[in-house]
Amino acid sequence: MITGQQIRIARYALRWSAEVLAEAVDVNPKTIRRIEAADGLPDSTMKTISQIQTVLEAAGIEFIGTPDDGPGIRIY
Q1: Residue 30 and residue 70: Cα distance in Å, rounded?
Q2: Mean pLDDT of 8-34
């Protein structure tokens, strides 16, 4: 599972707007902003979080750590 902060940082690293990520995942940009505002595990469906993770990983992001231990990203 990835955190809201990891999603936000990954999106910034890719220089994507919330709208770009939302379009890639087929959700409303407000959903992306709400998920990114979470101080840990986002309050959203596993399907949505999984789709976000898949899209960001396909764009070159590697999620590292766990929500409780050093969550972060790498760009590859």
Answers
A1: 27
A2: 98
Q: What is the pTM of this model?
A: 0.94
Q: Which residues pair with 73 in a beta bridge?
A: 63
Q: Over the stretch 10-21, which tens digit does the pLDDT of each residue have? A: 999 999 999 999
Q: Which residues, including other chains, have CB under 8 Å from residue 33's CB and lie 6 or more apart?
A: 18
Residue 11's closest CA among 2, 1, 41, 65? 2
Q: Which helix (H) or strand (E) holds 71?
A: strand 69-75
Rounded Cα distance between 17 and 54, Å, is 17
66 contacts: CB under 8 Å, gap ≥ 6: 1
